[in-house]
Design a protein that fits this description.
The complex is a heterotrimer of chains A (290), B (761) and C (155).
Chain A (H helix, E strand, L loop, with lengths): L2 E2 L11 E2 L4 H10 L4 E3 L5 H7 L7 E3 L9 E3 L5 E4 L4 H6 L1 H6 L1 H7 L5 H4 L4 H7 L7 H6 L3 E6 L2 E6 H4 E3 L2 E2 L6 E7 L7 E7 L10 E9 L5 E9 L6 E2 L1 H7 L6 H14 L10 H10 L7
Parallel strand pairs in A: 2-4, 3-4
Antiparallel strand pairs in A: 5-6, 6-11, 7-8, 7-11, 9-10, 12-13, 13-14, 14-15
Helix pairs in contact in A: 10-11, 11-12
Chain B lengths: L16 H6 L14 E7 L5 E7 L1 H5 L3 E5 L9 E2 L6 E2 L5 E2 L5 E7 L2 H10 L1 E6 L6 H5 L14 E9 L11 E9 L2 E2 L7 E6 L5 E5 L4 H12 L6 E4 L16 H9 L6 E4 L2 H7 L2 E2 L1 E10 L5 E13 L5 H10 L9 E10 L13 H19 L3 H8 L19 H10 L1 H4 L1 H6 L5 E14 L8 E8 L5 E4 L9 H13 L6 E4 L17 H27 L8 E4 L2 E4 L4 E4 H7 L6 E7 L10 E2 L9 E14 L5 E11 L6 H20 L5 E2 L2 E2 L17 E6 L23 H13 L10 H9 L1
Parallel strand pairs in B: 1-15, 13-14, 18-19, 22-23, 30-33
Antiparallel strand pairs in B: 1-7, 2-6, 2-8, 3-7, 4-5, 9-19, 9-28, 10-17, 11-16, 12-13, 12-15, 17-18, 20-29, 21-22, 21-27, 24-25, 25-26, 29-30, 31-32
Chain C lengths: L1 E6 L2 E6 L6 H8 L18 E4 L2 E4 L12 E3 L8 H12 L9 H13 L6 H7 L11 H16 L1
Parallel strand pairs in C: 1-5
Antiparallel strand pairs in C: 1-2, 3-4, 3-5
Helix pairs in contact in C: 2-3, 2-5, 3-5
Classes of the chains: A alpha+beta (290), B alpha+beta (761), C alpha+beta (155).
InterPro entries (chain A): CO_DH_flav_C, CO_DH_flav_C_dom_sf, Diverse_Substr_Oxidored, FAD-bd_PCMH, FAD-bd_PCMH-like_sf, FAD-bd_PCMH_sub1, FAD-bd_PCMH_sub2, Mopterin_DH_FAD-bd
GO molecular function (chain A): FAD binding; oxidoreductase activity
Keywords (chain A): FAD, Flavoprotein
């Protein structure tokens, strides 16, 4: 049985393409240099709803198999295709076992259906100060593979991000993969997002933390990254250095929190004040001894 | 036969649940009549201004655009409003808020409509806007409506006993200032409907509305269509909560239909338009002073309440009046002075929303009770119990309570609950960096329209030729389940099972005027009318059965599912057969009811227009257990307990639905909902910025029915409880935060930022 | 453009603009009004459908994305044991008030049922955390899903 719909009255406003390989993608892009790239569509389609009339073509990444895979590479690093959704990340046993920081962060994105649509590549390219995956990717030393017709290049995520909605992505270039270097043996991996409700929330502040502790409990190495408290992800080397060689305690974390509160540069907006973000950015460190 | 009769007091599944679960229920938003036109309003981007010109030429010339209408196309008053008709259908001179409609576009498709709307050229001369109470009340403030001096929609006062002199005898006095935010109804089905002009010039409209009968008058007044020629059909609503009481799309749709050459026109506001142009809960500022004797006996109250009603009246005055009537809580206070001001501003229009006026005042009053308990060194529950109203007392507005008054029972049942008994043990088990607190609130909410308004309903029930019963509902079901209660009432009286009692949602052509679905009066008033109608029909059926079975009287005759049975002889006659014997008019019964209202406004009250005072109240005692995160200020509500006095419970499952839903909406109000407007511009125009609670934000909500007395005046002893639960969460949460960390928060919502700022000092 | 996909087990062919929103395609063109639009921006979940078995939001999808997929909407619930169990549980547990969020809730719940794992209330709430309800306070919705999970795990 075939159900056939009636003719729509308004005709196609724009072209939408579904390349299945990256090569095909570049071929389409060459013909439609003005085209928008769409991975999950959760940002783009909302922007199109609110924005002025925009009839630029759309090129969808969702059918490019290569961009949808999570692979372990021979050197034990792990490659995540740019169009991999947060849902796939949350459900990946490999990522959960080795990079639980990313799993935790991915599970705070939107709600379940949004996670089944929104992609990690989109989260990076959108470059929102509140992007949930970025603090974790910073701490995991994620490398981005950028592809264009002229070839590919790789750079660290921290280098790639310039500021709110600004990255080093060149016209004609896409993020193809996110490569996580071989997992190290961290004692603690913790991600906490502070939003104004417990799901479907935009981060008011977030903290990603990874610590390696010695047998006696002293900190061998600490890495911290914050989201939503500056134009892009914020690191605080002084706080990390302060903890080195110390046992984790409320006292030392309170001292580190003060350093963080000096380092952040948050803004006031509808969700929270700069002052609140600053306070919370530091306070979140204390969760390590909760 | 697997057919147990519907029975009052039992949790039968709702009559609409199966269709809604299957996705087959048709809401107004689901109607797309073949070949319909799409209508949309072009709205002002300025909050206050004078119209210089509206140029529709370019828009009208676009392909697919059928008509572009302005105020000049409205032939009658062009004014809508439930009581005060001050709101233009399309603005003709001034715009008074950012979102005021200026033009109406009709187009062949949604896409053409969008293009047409963006092509209308507006020229407005900006005028200085008034965006807060102080600037609107300033002596030199410009007038938002010329006929409203001081920008006051209403001003009233209640002075009881010796008023402020009552403070002279008080041993303890506490004072506090509070504010509450604007709340949006945020029903998931936005304002929507379809309409067309009939061949006889009448208007047919199927629309998401809480007030189908009153809508006819609003449309008629604004557009000049005789109200008798207006037919409104009101399917199930995808939520209402007060926001669909009064005209939303109705007059715009009617105007569109007047210019559509008999074609169907469809209008649905998108979420952003709903936030911008839909009605809201009033923001409120309060100043409280409360005095008591040394033993905790309340003596004197002074409350001042200012409500921001936005650009137009809607029910603003009535909202303020109801807030004032509840401003002293469900307690005995011999001396009170309660003052209220309802103020026009250039903010979006505030109107009716669940527990209107009351949930604002409850925040103030129940916070004051905890402040007073702390100052007296008294247990906050003891203080409430000591002063709780009982039948025969005079309430804070000077009304003697003559109906069921169950607040004391609610508080006593709460006192016995493990959450209260074990509170210290629970609090002591706080995890690291969390502080636990327990908060209480006593709540009450009037039911019914109140003084000066006829609160009446006319119910209609018929025996169909198929031997089933059909109720013609006249009061919209916005989700609260009144239509299921009606099925249960009729099924109970007629001893019929669910498959034999059907219900038709309101249609002004086949049902009778019964007022709006609001004010905790929906099930109460129509239910009483339905009992009358159904009992008359039952009497007719028994009479007919008796004639057919040659019985001299009704002894031993009883209705059973599908039949009337004579028990002694086991002779029976089926309802189908009875329907065949009866004349069509004989198979239809009407019943009417006028709810009790108070005719004598106490002399203590001044400035009240209509809707005051009330004689029936629902009551409740609420308890919340929560954790404050001392690192982030986030609140986690762990448990919620609500004991509610709604008289006799007709359907325990649906009773719990209303309580749980009211509590959840109240928790949203307490924790996160904050409709933000800056200089007249809405900063929270969507669900990404206006947050309502999700499944992880709401705890298990335990609902317990008070073991009190039935409400003698109500159908089977019930009284309305759709609103009362909304009042508890904000004060209860504030009291719990104070209990947890000693910080008294006086401004809602209690956001992590406010909590943390309080904790930091 | 012509789009072919399987809609509630029925092979379906549509001629529509490729960038038509899936929610409009379902409701306006195909007359399947069970899926609701509450916000249009992916914040409320009322338009949740399953695409190739995965919950997605029909307001943030373009018609062309459906090409070759299996789409399930609330209208398909009656076709399966799990779907019927869900509908019955929602109706009988009192999970339904105004009902506007319910189709989306049920589709999100169906995806949970298909995991064929026992779920506690917290996990159910997590699974429904992308679906807003304004009427119920969620308690009875969680009751309903809990019951459906128990019934379906027994089978």
């Amino acid at each position: 049985m075939w159900a056939t719909m009636t003719q729509c009255t308004d005709r196609c406003k724009r072209q939408i393409s579904f390349p299945v390989t990256i090569e095909e993608l570049f071929a389409v892009q060459e013909q439609q240099p003005e085209a928008r790239i769409m991975a999950g569509g959760t940002d783009l389609l909302v922007a199109l709803r609110h924005g002025p009339q925009d009839t630029r073509p759309i090129i969808c990444l969702e059918r490019i198999e290569e961009l949808r895979r999570i692979d372990e590479l021979p050197d034990n690093s792990v490659s995540i295709g740019a169009a991999v959704t947060f849902g796939s990340i949350v459900r990946s046993p490999l990522l959960k076992a080795r990079y639980s920081l990313l799993t935790q962060a991915a599970s705070t994105v939107g709600g379940p259906a949004i996670r089944n649509m929104a992609s990690i590549g989109g989260n990076i390219v959108t470059a929102s100060p509140a992007a949930d995956s970025l603090p974790a990717l910073y701490l995991l030393d994620a490398q981005l593979e950028l592809r264009s017709t002229t070839g590919s290049r790789t750079m660290a995520i921290a280098e790639f991000m310039l500021g709110p909605r600004r990255t080093l992505l060149q016209p004609g270039e896409i993020i193809s993969r996110i490569i996580l270097p071989p997992a190290q043996d961290w004692s603690i991996q913790l991600f906490e997002k502070v939003g104004r409700r417990k799901s479907l929330a935009i981060a008011v502040a977030s903290l990603a933390a990874m610590l390696r502790l010695a047998a006696d409990g002293t900190v061998v190495e600490a890495r911290f990254a914050w989201g939503s408290v500056g134009p892009t992800v914020l690191r605080c080397p002084a706080a990390e250095a302060l903890l080195k060689g110390q046992p984790l305690s409320e006292a030392v974390l309170t001292e580190a929190a003060a350093l963080v509160q000096d380092a952040v540069s948050p803004i006031d907006d509808i969700r929270a004040s700069a002052d609140y973000r600053r306070t919370v950015a530091g306070n979140l460190l204390l969760r390590l001894v909760a | 036969m697997n057919a147990s009769a519907l029975k009052i007091g039992t949790s039968h599944p709702r009559g609409d649940a199966v269709a809604k679960a299957a996705g087959t229920e048709r809401y107004a938003a689901d109607l797309y009549p073949q070949g319909c036109l799409w209508a949309g309003a072009v709205r002002s981007h300025q909050a206050c201004g004078r119209i210089i010109s509206i140029d529709t030429t370019a828009a009208a010339a676009l392909p697919g655009v059928v008509k572009v209408l302005t105020a000049a196309d409205v032939v009658a008053s062009n004014r809508q409003g439930i009581i005060h008709k001050d709101m233009p259908v399309l603005c003709d001179d001034l715009v008074r808020y950012c979102g005021d409609p200026l033009a109406l576009v009709l187009a062949e498709t949604k896409e053409a409509l969008q293009r047409g709307m963006s092509a209308v050229q507006l020229q407005l001369e900006p005028l200085p806007g008034l965006f807060d109470l102080d600037s609107a009340l300033a002596a030199d403030a410009p007038l938002i409506h010329e006929d409203k001096p001081g920008n006051l929609l209403a001003q009233a006062s209640i002075c009881k006993g010796t008023g402020l002199d009552g403070f002279d005898a008080c041993s303890v006095v506490v004072e506090g200032s509070f504010s509450t935010p604007v709340q949006a109804h945020a029903f998931l089905e936005t304002e929507s409907g379809v309409a067309r002009l009939e061949e006889d010039g009448g208007l047919l409209m199927e629309v998401s509305t809480q007030s189908p009968f009153r809508d006819r008058f609003e449309i008629s007044h604004a557009l000049g269509i005789p109200w008798g020629k207006i037919r409104i059909v009101a399917p199930s609503l995808g939520g209402g909560f007060g926001g669909k009481d009064g005209a939303t799309v109705q007059c715009l749709l009617g105007l569109a239909a007047q210019h559509a050459d008999g074609r169907w026109v469809r209008m649905q506001w998108d979420r952003e338009e709903s936030f911008k142009a839909g009605y809201k809960r009033h923001a409120c500022r309060m100043e409280y002073k409360l005095g008591a004797a040394a033993d905790g006996t309340l003596q004197a109250l002074h409350a001042k309440l200012w409500y921001d009603t936005g650009a137009y009246a809607h029910l603003g005055a009535e909202v303020m009046e109801l807030g004032m009537e509840h401003a002293g809580g469900p307690y005995r206070i011999p001396h009170t002075l309660i003052e209220g001001w309802c103020v026009y501003t250039n903010n979006p229009t505030a109107g009716a929303m669940r527990a209107f006026g009351v949930c604002q005042a409850t925040f103030g009053f129940e916070s004051m009770m905890d402040l007073l308990a702390a100052k007296l060194g008294m247990d906050p529950l003891e203080l409430r119990l000591k002063n709780a109203l009982v039948r025969g007392d005079e309430n804070c507005a000077g009304m003697r309570l003559t109906t069921s008054t169950g607040i004391k029972t609610c508080l006593e049942q709460l006192q016995q609950h493990p959450f209260w008994q074990d509170r210290e043990v629970w609090k002591a088990a706080s995890p690291a960096y969390k502080k636990r607190g327990i908060g209480l609130a006593s709540v009450f909410n009037a039911a019914g329209y109140g003084g000066g308004v006829r609160d009446a309903a006319t119910a209609k029930i018929e025996l169909t030729p198929e031997g089933t019963f059909l109720i013609h509902n006249a009061v919209t079901d916005m989700g609260q389940g009144n239509s299921s209660a009606f099925l249960q009432i009729a099924g109970h009286i007629l001893s019929q099972d669910a498959s034999r009692v059907l219900l038709k949602q309101p249609d002004t052509r086949t049902a009778y005027p019964s007022g709006s679905s609001s004010a905790g009066r929906t099930t109460y008033t129509f239910g009483k009318a339905l009992i009358t109608a159904t009992e008359e029909l039952k009497a007719r059926l028994l009479n007919w059965a008796g004639m057919i079975l040659f019985l001299q009287d009704n002894d031993g005759l009883e209705l059973q599912p599908g039949r009337v049975l004579h028990q002694p002889s086991q002779k029976e006659v089926s309802l189908v057969a009875l329907a065949g014997y009866m004349q069509p008019e004989e198979r239809v019964c009407l019943g009417q009811y006028v709810a009790p209202t108070c005719k004598e406004v106490p002399p203590t009250a001044k400035g009240f227009f209509i809707g005051f005072p009330h004689v029936i109240f629902g009551y409740g005692a609420h308890l919340v257990r929560l954790e404050v995160d001392s690192l982030t200020g986030q609140l986690t509500v762990c448990d919620y307990l609500a004991v509610t006095d709604g008289g006799r419970v007709l359907n325990p499952g649906m009773f719990d639905q209303q309580v749980q839903g009211g509590v959840a909406q109240g928790l949203g109000y307490a924790l996160m909902e904050d409709f933000t407007v800056r200089d007249g511009v809405v900063k929270t125009p969507d669900f990404a910025t206006y947050l309502i609670p999700g499944s992880l934000d709401i705890p298990e909500i335990i609902s317990i029915a008070a073991q009190g007395e039935p409400e003698e005046t109500g159908p089977f002893g019930m009284k309305g409880i759709g609103e009362v639960a909304m009042n508890g969460p904000l004060p209860a949460v504030a009291n719990a935060v104070a209990d947890a960390c000693g910080v008294r928060l006086c401004h809602g919502p209690l956001t992590p930022q406010r909590v943390l700022a309080g904790v930091k000092g | 453009m012509t789009i072919r996909f399987n809609l509630n087990s029925i092979p379906t062919e549509c001629d529509c603009p490729s960038d038509r929103r899936v929610i409009d395609l379902l409701r306006e063109d195909l007359g399947l009004t069970g899926s609701k639009e509450g916000c249009g921006t992916g914040e409320c979940g009322a338009c949740t459908i399953l695409v190739d078995g995965v919950p997605k939001l029909a307001c943030l999808m373009l018609a062309a994305q459906l090409e070759g997929t299996q789409v399930e909407t609330v209208e398909a619930l009656q076709q399966t044991d799990q779907g019927r169990a869900l509908m019955t549980a929602f109706a009988e547990e009192g999970a339904v008030q105004c009902g506007y969020c319910i189709p989306g809730m049920e589709m999100a719940s169906l995806a949970l049922l298909r995991q064929e794992e026992p779920l506690n209330r917290e996990q159910i709430k997590e699974g429904l955390s992308g679906n807003l309800c304004r009427c119920t306070g969620y308690v009875k919705i969680v009751d309903a899903v809990e019951r459906a999970v128990q019934e379906c795990c027994k089978i």
